[in-house]
């Protein structure tokens, strides 16, 4: 896991020393991604320079240092990530007639040799892993950029004047002297809806994210190709629709377990200490259970806890760890610990990103890094195996709601919204003894208010969009902003399945997973130089999950049925079968308490008017509703606050 950056000066007016210094400055901006070393390479005749920041994981010797040149001298790379299948590829490459031997044992060298022997696209298709690759072809004088299938590793790029820039993080591009920090109001509108800017867009005009599963080329003369797919989640989903498994359930589940074991064992390869995040939920508990099957000693596991039981998973994780037999470390953090992270959010997530679980994710990453350099996670389990409430409860509810007139549903929604979330929470607490366990939920008042906002949807697509939205009408909040057309509005970018759960799963995996979950984890962990790995996102598991019959995804009002059946072999049901909690913190209460003054300043009518981005009246109304407890608007308010503080940090006007 590392950080990469670079540039091409199309004018060829920059000498070698200047190119190297510019690349070095770009890399230094993201130095936490690679504290173990740095290197630069430049060719002034082509105007190209590369920077690499190294977090040494495999092959800690000098033979693993980058930028690395292929044996023939044709290719030079700065590469971020891990190719877990590199040992198998290494053996395969050794059989070719032109093979000349290895210098070290890094996956980088294997990647270069694969490109040399097979060409870029075939090589990319052969890689199992997470990566962002910058590859300079000295023969064709052309730069290739490529990103892994599911979007685990980030890669940004932009043309600024006569210079092409790229980097693992946006902050690397911002070091360029001529970089134009011009906010794209359309991106801002979409950010308010989703709390992230949907790829391939960024918060800035003329700056892009390379999409998962794609590559592009940039010639020394300034010709930039359109991104091309070497793998497509959509194609995989469409192909799976006609290949749903028909074998006995037990055979399908056994095959999935074997596949997961193979992938987990492969992703445990490391020359540095390795562990895992453990929340005590289905996904992380299963990953840790399988790790323990592959390990010769207790796996190191990590979790954080909060004194507020509504947000605390530490007790559950501890019980699971004790049963599996891991070497478990937990850290209880105070509101003060979490609040101290807030000023650093704009630096860590260098474009507006306001999923509030970013704070505990960073805290657990920081604690984990004190013990290990690599941590496996359960990310992807919800999207691929139907684990979100919307996949089962949400779909079940829509199947009922769509039979009622929209006008009647609107009346029902208004009735719910008349009762404050806190009052609804108190009511549910009183009724808890008579509520069936599978219908119990954490913070029911907030969830019912969210439900009320989606009840008047006119279609399943509108319903899903509302479920995944913060501001439901961001164009009325952002001045002169128009939302980016999303996959929800483009049927050519969607699978044809008529099953709403399968459709939601695809949409989550294609958008929410890379743009929110993986962005959150990558930045939170790399800010403390921790590599994270997500076994569920191996493309073999992704493709397998899409072929699961629906009854192995959901049964009896619960998702992730196949994963549960595997996990029950290792962990008793009573330790893991409980309402889904998520990974959050009480931002709603903090905004009314310790964050009140900070928020008041950023949301003042004068500040909003001076900035000119938001409709001050709309924002102030939402803020006062939240302060009074009339509504829980903390998601919406947090959206605005993160953007405002980001503007201040990066001096954006």
From TrEMBL:
<keyword id="KW-0315">Glutamine amidotransferase</keyword>
<dbReference type="GO" id="GO:0005829">
    <property type="term" value="C:cytosol"/>
</dbReference>
<protein>
    <recommendedName>
        <fullName>asparagine synthase (glutamine-hydrolyzing)</fullName>
        <ecNumber>6.3.5.4</ecNumber>
    </recommendedName>
</protein>
<feature type="domain" description="Glutamine amidotransferase type-2">
    <location>
        <begin position="2"/>
        <end position="221"/>
    </location>
</feature>
<dbReference type="InterPro" id="IPR006426">
    <property type="entry name" value="Asn_synth_AEB"/>
</dbReference>
<comment type="similarity">
    <text>Belongs to the asparagine synthetase family.</text>
</comment>
<keyword id="KW-0028">Amino-acid biosynthesis</keyword>
<dbReference type="Pfam" id="PF00733">
    <property type="entry name" value="Asn_synthase"/>
</dbReference>
<feature type="binding site">
    <location>
        <begin position="377"/>
        <end position="378"/>
    </location>
    <ligand>
        <name>ATP</name>
    </ligand>
</feature>
<keyword id="KW-0061">Asparagine biosynthesis</keyword>
<feature type="binding site">
    <location>
        <position position="304"/>
    </location>
    <ligand>
        <name>ATP</name>
    </ligand>
</feature>
<keyword id="KW-0547">Nucleotide-binding</keyword>
<feature type="site" description="Important for beta-aspartyl-AMP intermediate formation">
    <location>
        <position position="379"/>
    </location>
</feature>
<dbReference type="Pfam" id="PF13522">
    <property type="entry name" value="GATase_6"/>
</dbReference>
<dbReference type="InterPro" id="IPR033738">
    <property type="entry name" value="AsnB_N"/>
</dbReference>
<dbReference type="InterPro" id="IPR001962">
    <property type="entry name" value="Asn_synthase"/>
</dbReference>
<comment type="pathway">
    <text>Amino-acid biosynthesis; L-asparagine biosynthesis; L-asparagine from L-aspartate (L-Gln route): step 1/1.</text>
</comment>
<dbReference type="InterPro" id="IPR029055">
    <property type="entry name" value="Ntn_hydrolases_N"/>
</dbReference>
<dbReference type="InterPro" id="IPR051786">
    <property type="entry name" value="ASN_synthetase/amidase"/>
</dbReference>
<keyword id="KW-0067">ATP-binding</keyword>
<dbReference type="GO" id="GO:0006529">
    <property type="term" value="P:asparagine biosynthetic process"/>
</dbReference>
<dbReference type="GO" id="GO:0004066">
    <property type="term" value="F:asparagine synthase (glutamine-hydrolyzing) activity"/>
</dbReference>
<dbReference type="GO" id="GO:0005524">
    <property type="term" value="F:ATP binding"/>
</dbReference>
<dbReference type="InterPro" id="IPR014729">
    <property type="entry name" value="Rossmann-like_a/b/a_fold"/>
</dbReference>
<dbReference type="InterPro" id="IPR017932">
    <property type="entry name" value="GATase_2_dom"/>
</dbReference>
<feature type="active site" description="For GATase activity">
    <location>
        <position position="2"/>
    </location>
</feature>
<feature type="binding site">
    <location>
        <position position="107"/>
    </location>
    <ligand>
        <name>L-glutamine</name>
    </ligand>
</feature>
